[in-house]
Amino acid sequence: MDKSKRLFLQGAGAILAGISLYQTRLATAREPQASKVKYALLHDETLCIGCDACTLACREANQVPADVTRLTMVRSGPFGEYPNRRYHFSRQSCQQCENAPCVTVCPTGAAYIDAQTGIVKVDDWKCVGCQYCIAACPYKVRFIHPVTRAADKCDFCADSRLQHGQQPACVSACPTKALIFGDISNQLAPITRLIKHNAVDRDKVSLGTRPKLFKIRAPSGEVIL
Questions:
Q1: Are 144 and 150 a contacting pair, CB within 8 Å?
Q2: Could you report the per-residue pLDDT of 4-23, keeping only the tens digit for each?
Q3: Residues of the chain with pLDDT > 70: what percent?
Q4: Which of 71, 81, 102, 181 is the most exposed place for a label (fewest CB within 10 A)?
Q5: Residues 181, 157: contact at Cβ < 8 Å?
Q6: Residue 2 clears pLDDT 90, i.e. is over it
Q7: pTM for the full predicted model
Q8: Do 210 and 200 touch, CB atoms closer than 8 A?
Q9: Cis omega before residue 211 (within 30°)?
Q10: Which residues contact 42 (CB under 8 A, 6 or more apart)?
Q11: Are strands 213-216 and 39-44 parallel, antiparallel or unpaired?
């Protein structure tokens, strides 16, 4: 075999090996990682007064620009007649799905489930802004951050507070303790006990996403004017 053919075969072999390694790493990056810790959030709508302290605290802690948001409180109502009018407040944010469609469709591995916490996170530097995750999310809570140009959403303040041993900003700011955060794999955790002993609900469970945002519903409203 002449030298040129040998060099060609060596080069082709190196390229194929590189492609194989890339595909292996990509597959590994996409493969859901089982986590022993399962951080979750419980919103007790019967205690929520719709004060928006949670949304303001979230914005401040995570430096979220004014024209986008990680968290929205949706008000519905009024229910009933004066003087017994009532409103209903429901949290709209990332559901921290165990079977997250945003992670499945991400072509670069930017969206992933953290193996240590079970939190769905985003690596800004890997995100190419394709918006597949935004299209795939059935809860419509992702957005393109105007500064980082990456897909953004609630991550339970993983980098801004959790890694410093603090609760998510929304939980700390809530004046009525309507938000309870914790590890639901811990049977003794307050959030686990509350979920076990109350009628809780989750959004769009029929989709099989296994969300970890639980709600104690207040169907007829909880604020009496």
A1: yes
A2: 544 444 544 444 443 343 34
A3: 81
A4: 81
A5: no
A6: no
A7: 0.80
A8: no
A9: no
A10: 179, 180, 181, 191, 194, 195, 200, 214, 215, 216
A11: parallel
* Phi, psi of 19, rounded to the nearest 5 degrees: -60, -45
- Give the end-to-end CA distance of the chain in Å, rounded to a whole number: 90
Give the C-alpha distances (Å, rounded to integers) separating 14 from 1, 53, 201: 19, 56, 53
In whole angstroms, give the CA distance from residue 129 to residue 110: 10
CB 91 within 8 A of CB 73: yes
In order of 127, 198, 205, the CA distances from 49 in angstroms are 36, 20, 26
Question: What tokens appear for 2 in the block?
Answer: 């002449």
Cα dihedral 159, 160, 164, 165 in deg (nearest 10) = -90
Q: Which of 57, 20, 2 is nearest to 167 (CA)?
A: 57
